[in-house]
Specification:
The protein is mostly helical and about 800 residues long. It is built from 40 helices and no strands.
Length: about 800
């Protein structure tokens, strides 16, 4: 049936267009012959085709445009009195004798346009006559297009200020009243269109009505273009007239569209000065009208207006725009109890955007908006609607983006309360937004209470929430999140030691509940943050009177011990061991020998009990040796105990090459350049000889297991250690010992059992060249190297 109707419409449209073209042909022939009577006859016949009721609005528009194009030529003919010999006044009377009312009114509007241009009568009188005459057509579609034609031919002939048609007296009001009257009648026809035809095609009819909305809206555009419409006229005449029609029509489609037009076409300053009336009308609209979208558009316009120039901001304060908008939004939300949460939140997002642009310094306004959002969400479970959570993220992101300073957001009491309504994944997303803002703007958070608030906001990143275990999370995303938290900890700093200590304790409290997967990311930055404070307090010791927790190195080392102990039990023994060594070095710099010794003890205990992997053991023992070598705080007894442990563990490594390298590294523990008391040449030589024995054993084992000895790399490495201590003046390392080692390496390289290795050969050749260079250089060093034959 629908298909048949469409086919019929196509046929009717084709017949109508054909009739218009045929009558237009005869009309133009009459025009060419300057035959007025024939021209009026065929133009009336042509316009009679617009009397049809069979076409949909879309098809009727096509027919109307054909007739409209032809009427342009007719208007040109009417203008030239010399061609038809009739005055425009008589012509205006003559066309009113057309047989049917619709052709008559089209012709009357066309002649009326010429009549106004002739200035033989005031424009306001002719316009008033035309707008009243058009009431003769009450069919919705025919009447709409007729009045649209009247609006089209009269828009450049309104008696506006500065216009050539401006007459005596208050002509601007005449122009306004003409457009308003035409708008009112057109809106009535447009609304009435919904009742045309059977009820079963209501949806189709509403779609057709929607297609015609621009015909009505153009009137508001014309009103906004009238030069003489100032704020006073707009406030007293235009706005009340438009709002009265909008409210009284009681049609949701018309109300939404016309309010949208009103907001878009008139100047922002007018909206600001008439805000109360505009907002008051919103509460009178039909319940089905999307008021939240209208209010959002209005606030966006006003926000952009405020951002355009700082000079306009006093106007907003004068009219109390924030209070009025806030009250209107609350009334709308309260009146529409069925409004989805996403709709209410989107209104608050618009209001917050407006507030941040107009009153950026009023944090109380910002918090008031957030508080209103909390009130709306109270009693509801965490949001699961993705659109609603997206709006919440936009709401929470707005202050951060505006101020580029998370610290200001942290002062808002309702900010964390809004975040509580986010589900776990969105909470994390918002937490990442906060951290990224801090990093991007290099924001340093200097107060412990703000750090507390911050960690409450990013709670989803620092501990398990909502029963979601870490194992259920995507590993790549998890690592990125925890790295972000780690970077954040470095941005928490205060020059005041007491406040910095409070910050460290606050962070400790939160990250200690993060669990075994998070702590390896978050503990190290906290440790180094505490060590930075230790370095600052290096000269201080003892208690600070009046402080509950004094900011001294001892206090910090106690906290550090607790933090790293928690990490070692995670377990992350290798990481904990590294941190213990860092703390030991810091304690040594603070001249706290017992503390440094305790940290080394903890490191050795971890090495013994927790570090099982052979590669990890090698790395750990080299770290211990390196840290111990740099320590200057230990007395003879403590140093001997620790170096004995280090050398003992070095010799117990699984692989012989690893043993060898660790043992010769231990030689540095007995000879430290900048410490006169630590230059024990005999023990250095003992380590080097022991390393040689292990290297020799490694060669023999390789020969037994593989049938050939390994490369001589270990011997060359030991030779370089001999040369180092020889140059440092160790009396136990003699040129004869070096000569013997060189000969040993040469013999090993020439042996048939030794595996040839280009890297080892190059290494040895470079070492020999170095010896030769030192001999040729002369001086004291040259004399020392003289007896060595490389």
């Amino acid at each position: 049936m629908v298909l048949e109707r469409a086919e019929d419409e196509e046929k009717w449209l084709a017949e109508g267009i054909a009739a218009i073209q045929q009558n237009a042909f005869y009309m133009h022939r009459a025009l060419d012959a300057n035959n007025l009577r024939e021209a009026l006859k065929y133009s009336a016949l042509m316009l009679s085709e617009l009397r049809t009721s069979n076409l949909s609005p879309h098809k009727y528009y096509d027919l109307y445009m054909r007739a409209f194009d032809e009427l342009r030529g007719l208007e040109m003919f009417f203008k030239d009195e010399s061609r038809h010999g009739v005055s425009v006044v008589d012509l205006y009377e003559l066309v009113q004798h057309a047989g049917n009312i619709l052709p008559r009114l089209y012709l009357l509007c066309t002649v009326g346009s010429v009549y106004i241009k002739s200035k033989e009568a005031p424009a306001k009188d002719i316009l008033k006559d035309l707008v009243e005459m058009c009431r003769g057509v009450q069919h919705p579609i025919r009447g709409l297009f007729l009045r649209s034609y009247l609006s089209q031919v009269s828009r450049d002939k309104l008696p506006d200020i500065g216009s050539e048609y401006e007459g005596d007296g208050d002509t601007v009001m005449d122009a306004v009243e003409f457009v308003l009257q035409n708008f009112t009648e057109m809106n009535k026809l447009w609304v009435r269109l919904q009742h045309q035809g059977p009820g079963r095609i209501r949806e189709k009819r509403e779609k057709e009505r929607s297609e015609l909305r621009d015909l009505v809206g153009k009137n508001l555009h014309v009103l906004s273009q009238i030069e003489g419409v100032d704020l006073e006229i707009y406030k007293e005449t235009v706005l009340p007239g438009v709002l009265e029609q909008v409210v009284n029509c009681k049609d949701d489609l018309a109300q939404y569209y016309l309010m949208e037009c009103l907001i878009q076409v008139f100047p922002d300053e007018y909206h600001l000065q008439t805000l109360e009336a505009l907002l008051g009308s919103c509460s009178q609209l039909q319940p089905t009208v999307d008021i939240k979208m209208l209010l959002s558009q209005l606030m966006e316009r006003l926000s952009n207006y405020a951002a355009s120039s700082p000079d306009v901001l006093p106007e907003f304060l004068q009219v109390e725009a924030f209070a009025k908008l806030s009250s209107a939004i609350w009334k709308v939300i309260d009146a529409h109890a069925e409004m989805p949460v996403v709709g209410a939140i989107s209104l608050y997002v618009s209001l917050l955007t407006f507030t941040l642009r107009v009153h950026p310094d009023r944090l109380d306004y910002v918090d008031q908006v957030l508080g209103a959002c909390v009130k709306k969400l109270s009693g509801k479970p965490k949001l699961e609607d993705r659109r609603a959570t997206k709006q919440i993220v936009a709401l929470l992101s707005a202050p951060i983006e505006k101020y580029n300073d998370v610290v200001r957001a942290l002062t808002l009491p309702n900010y964390p309360r809004v975040m509580e309504y986010l589900d776990s994944s969105t909470n994390k997303q918002m937490a990442m937004v906060i951290i990224q803002s801090i990093m991007k703007n290099n924001t340093c958070i200097k107060e412990a209470d703000k750090v507390e608030v911050l960690f409450e906001l990013i709670e989803g990143l620092v501990k398990d929430v909502d029963g979601i275990a870490v194992d259920e999370l995507d590993e790549e995303d998890f690592n990125e999140e925890q790295n972000s938290v780690a970077r954040l900890i470095h941005m928490l700093y205060n020059d005041d030691p007491e406040e910095m200590l409070k910050i460290i304790c606050a962070v400790q409290k939160h990250i200690m509940v993060g669990g075994p997967k998070r702590q390896p990311f978050t503990v190290p930055p906290l440790v180094f943050s505490a060590l930075r404070l230790v370095r600052k307090l290096q000269s201080q010791d003892g208690e600070v009177v009046g402080e509950e927790l004094p900011a001294t190195p001892k206090t910090l080392f106690q906290i550090l011990s607790q933090i790293i102990e928690a990490l070692s039990s995670v377990p992350s023994p290798e990481l904990a061991l590294r941190l213990y060594l860092q703390c030991a070095e810091a304690a040594g710099d603070c001249d706290l020998e017992p503390v440094a010794y305790e940290f080394f003890t903890q490191a050795f205990v971890l090495y013994e009990e927790e570090v099982a992997d052979s590669k990890a053991q090698v790395t750990a023992i080299h770290l211990i040796i390196g840290s111990l070598q740099r320590m200057t705080v230990f007395g003879v007894e403590n140093r001997d105990t620790l170096t004995h442990k280090a050398t003992g563990y070095s010799a117990k490594l699984l692989k012989k090459p690893d043993q060898c390298r660790a043992v010769y590294a231990c030689s540095h523990l007995f000879w430290v350049d900048d410490q006169e008391g630590i230059k024990d040449g005999e023990r250095v030589l003992l380590c080097l000889k022991r390393a040689l024995r292990i290297a020799n054993a490694a060669q023999q084992m390789a020969s037994v297991t593989r049938g050939s000895a390994g490369p001589v790399t270990l011997f060359v490495e030991i030779l370089n250690k001999y040369l180092y201590f020889f140059e440092k003046g160790n009396p136990q390392v003699t040129n004869s010992a070096i000569q013997s080692l060189v000969e040993l390496i040469k013999n090993e390289m020439q042996s048939d059992f030794t595996t040839q290795d280009p890297a080892s050969d190059t290494f040895f050749a470079s070492t020999v060249r170095y010896i030769q260079y030192q001999k040729e250089k002369g001086g004291m060093m040259g004399e020392k190297y003289g007896p060595i034959k490389a």
